[in-house]
Amino acid sequence: MTSTEARAPWVARAVPYLPLGLIAALGATLAYVVRLPCRTGGWNDQVSTYTNFCYTDIYPLYFDRALATENPYFAHVPFDKQVEYPVVLGEVMQVFSWIARALEPDHVSQAVRFYDLTVVLLGVCLVAGVLLMAAVAGPTRRWDPLWYAISPAVVLAAYINWDLVAGALSMGMLLAWKRQRQVAAGVLLGLAIATKFYPLMFLGALFLLTWRTARWRPFLVTLGAAVGAWLVVNVPFMVFAWEGWRRFYVFSQERGVDWGSPWLFFQNKGWPVLGEADVSKLGMVSLAILCLGIAVLTLAAPRRPRLAQICFLALAAFMMTNKVWSPQFVLWLVPFAVLARPNWKPLVLWQLAEVWYFVAIWLYLLAQPPLSRDDLGIGDDTYFTAVWGRIITIGIMMAFVVRDVLRPDKDVVRQADIDDQAGGVFDDAPDRFTLQSALR
């Protein structure tokens, strides 16, 4: 056998992914172009930043979190100036700040270099996330990841924050689970949770489907590996930099209602109870109610739901009840929304709502103190149309997913005798527990 023949199967498998990788690279490039007005100096003028719609956290945090001079978590700064992210992101920031300091002599040039280096990483994560998503979706849905590669909302939000890192890890976790590599799936999930907290919701999805199928060993192996990976990257900082490490958790618990959250609307309008209660408790109760509904749906459905469907519902519930809903959170949901229900009509409607919110938040901030530029910005009522646009369109997609779960014949993914290509051990697994069987 020649070397060319030996390589042929691998090449044949890789070829279908090449166009997706190139289109994802185009999306990553367009996301960089969108922020060029800021990259060339606009960050130093807040009005210019908002009117050009090119805000990012990456550049200002280089200064505001002492990255120009100190190490995250170990920095001798006030508690509210510590890095407010889990440790994987903190260390990504650390590595790139070291490189930026070595390459540039002054702090301003370092911050720009820090942004450029971070963008390269995020662009790679977008391409990797798209390719991993394509592998998860399987050959029958190979082109669905285009929604993640180049959709307008993804291009606009890609470089606001570091969310694409967690996205790539989450897609890697799904692919490892699909291929029944539970240890790898757990390690990637643990790292994803140590990057952004939202992948924790996927453990709930795995647990519910495990309960229905009684495939406990794979779940427990994945859970153990996730806990182990999380501890490995967190414990050193818990021991040697406790104050810096706990900043993320204290910040998450104590922060008030922030932009994008429906609770902000209720507070702004002075609604009784919804606008007056402790939002931390109200949000947790609301999330618990939605998760209970998802659990009932999972265990009562006539056919076991697909893993991506439950992941999407759980993640959407988490976002809709959260105290903050930043523009970049769209990056969390896009791949799972597409894997759950790749129907273009509700996806387009949602994307339009996300684009409108992306425009509205920056125009709204222009009209808020300290800028107070009413001539350039928008008021409360116009802004809240964007907030509710996202909530309603995601609610519509959730309703369609619930319909597909209750009527599996309507699920476009489950055609041609396909069960759950991303389900791993759940694929074609028989039911061992359902609510119907428990009530007999």
TrEMBL record:
It is a multi-pass membrane protein. This is DUF2029 domain-containing protein. It comes from Nonomuraea composti. The chain crosses the membrane at residues 14-34, 114-137, 149-176, 183-207, 219-242, 282-301, 307-326, 347-367, 387-406. It is found in: Cell membrane. Keywords: Cell membrane, Membrane, Transferase, Transmembrane, Transmembrane helix. Its main location: membrane. Belongs to the glycosyltransferase 87 family.
